[in-house]
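Hello again,

I reread your note about wanting to compare the complex against the isolated chains. To keep things tidy I'm splitting this into two emails, and this first one only covers the full assembly. Below are the input lines as submitted, including protein chains and any nucleic acid or small-molecule components. They are followed by the predicted structure of everything together. The single-chain runs will come separately.
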Amino acid sequence: MQFFLEVLIGGLLSGVMYSLVALGFVLIFKASGVFNFAQGAMVYFAALSLVGCMGMGAPLWLAFILAFAIMTLLGIATEKFVLRKMVNQAPIALFMATIGLAFFIEGLAPLLWGNEVRALEIGLVDEPIAWILDNYNMVVSSFDLFAAGLALALVALLALFFQYTRVGRALRAVADDHQAALSIGIPLQHIWALVWAVAGFVALVAGMLWGSRNGVQFALTFTALKALPVLILGGFTSVPGAIVGGLIIGASEKLAEIYIPPVLAGWFGGNFGGIEGWFPYVMALLFLLVRPEGLFGEKHIDRV
Amino acid sequence: MFYRETGQFKTSYAADQQIFPIRQDRVGVILLLLVAFIVVPLVAGSYWFNAILIPFLIFALAALGLNILTGYAGQLSLGSAAFMAVGAYAAYNFQVRVEGMPILVSFLLGGLTAAGVGILFGLPSLRIKGFYLAVATLAAQFFIVWCLTKFPYLSNYSSSGVISVPGVEMAGFTFDTPQSRYLLVLSIVTVLALLAKNMVRSTTGRAWMAVRDMDVAAEVIGIRLMHTKLLAFAVSSFYCGVAGALYAFLYLGSVEPDGFSLDLSFKILFMIIVGGVGSILGSFLGAAFILLLPIFLDISLPWLSELLHLPFDGATVSHIQLMIFGALIMFFLIVEPHGLARLWQIGKEKLRLWPFPH
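Full-complex prediction:
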């Protein structure tokens, strides 16, 4: 039971990290209907920029601001040179363009900052919290806890931003209907550039946390693949969905990794580790069979 | 004036319904096939066969399979490489485990196995649509590759799932020269491509297109959604599976599960996007483009860096390649969202009138 709880908590905490990446997807999908496959590459680029700026001697806060500025520039450039020229094209074409963008960023980032694995020091230590270890005899990483707290704070901030600010209202209007938003005078292009900048900010936070934990390296781009099942489980258009989906995926993935391979090995013999790669997808898939629009996604009504 | 159909009267139903109704098309296709079957084997060297022509034909076949599913039936799939893997491994198992199995039957059975797996992973398409489905097909991608790595039976107990295929032999003839392998691949691809061309203009193909354009409307006019969508998954996976078997048997000779990664799936998706979604010709054009682009960049970038005296090392060159590749994909989508096939369409319109203005 103790072990189960420990795995569960570890899974939940790492699930929050998945949510952080999924959040970037949700923001862009909500505001522009673009399924942005480049989010993983953006996480990588943001983390590399952060490390790169720190390598030039900037303190963490300054490097963070600089990296955010770089991500904003990237967002504006994407809007100006790619999205603006693709208005009115099929969603699949936009999706493909973001895969192209992902390749572009994956080439650009190491070209600018070098491609060796780098450590990112943000002043957090990854060690068990003594109090929990003493009282309950469970290993809960302080780093994970901090990351989870930061992610939750970010989500709360974004939710407030979407709900109560003028820009947030404009974002929701654009998400609802591009043309209607345009006709009442919302500047579509500014809004898109803005939302890409916000997604860049989320990518930066995700990149900072993932990077300081595993090192800043190319593998950061694969965080996108971790976020996709979270996304379909939670629904593409829901910020809370990204959080809840992340928790479910994180917890079940870690539990499955511990408990399923021994069962399989018992049946067939051999080593069945590494089911983390596909298990979240299969679970999300089975879940979609029951609820095709995800947990919190908008129900789609077809009209002929 | 070169491409006018004026004066070509059809006097029988057979003539009206033939696969290429315009004479210029028929002549063109026959000429193309003659060149491919006779001229190319005489002039091309073994580098051309091994590095360009054989992979081009195999990828074109895989792209054709994905195009049937995504371009004609409108179901976005990111798992085509996994279905290629199923085809390759199934064909290998039939070849190794059944004594005296003819190679073509192995390919066919490999394709059919892939079709079965395709139907299984196509089932969710009955409930979910669009990007949700695209992400769901990733489940197939990761699950199948994992299975091939973890179940040693599937790779005949070789280490880490690598399969080395036995030599390809048919009725006493061994396909050991590049020419002979090229001709075998070409024959299979030709037959399957003509079959696909026929299929997409039949009842089935029209049902696929109706489902693609709007599946609720298609259901209302009496198209059986389940039947149509699953058939699209089956046929598409069959094509991908045969392509995978050819990839293993006649191109690489030895493959591992990780060779059929998500990157390969994306590559095939790029082929149909660049070539033209919903076009048989586009699959071939896209395959050629995506295959030749890296080769071209490989040759031109070091040359360029030498010319401009830029200190490019190997890693930098590969990064620039990646950037150019991504930028070109975006450029294509912006400039010609309907792909290279659309350019050919425009060219035909021009040829019809040329050299007259009207």
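For quick reference: Chain A touches chain B through 52 residues (CB under 8 Å).

B.
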